User: Fold DUF8040 domain-containing protein from Platanthera guangdongensis.
Amino acid sequence: MDLLHSLEEKCGFQIRRIVFREELALTVYILSQNGSMRKTYEHFQHSMKIASKVFARGLRALL
Assistant:
C-alpha cells in the first residue's frame, strides 16, 4: 500500500478544487523547499491561501 492510498483512507484527505494527489505533492514540495510558500504557489499555480490550507491539511495527515 502506498503513502497516497494510506493517507487518503486514514484522513479522507481531499478538498473540492484540488485532487488528493496534488495535495500530497504540494505538501511534500513545501517540506523539500524548507517551507518556501512563494515558490510553492508559483509552482502549483494556487493562491497563497489555498496553498497554506492544503499544506496544513497535508501536514496533519502525515503526522
Observations:
- The chain has one domain: 3-62.
- Residues 3-62 form one domain.
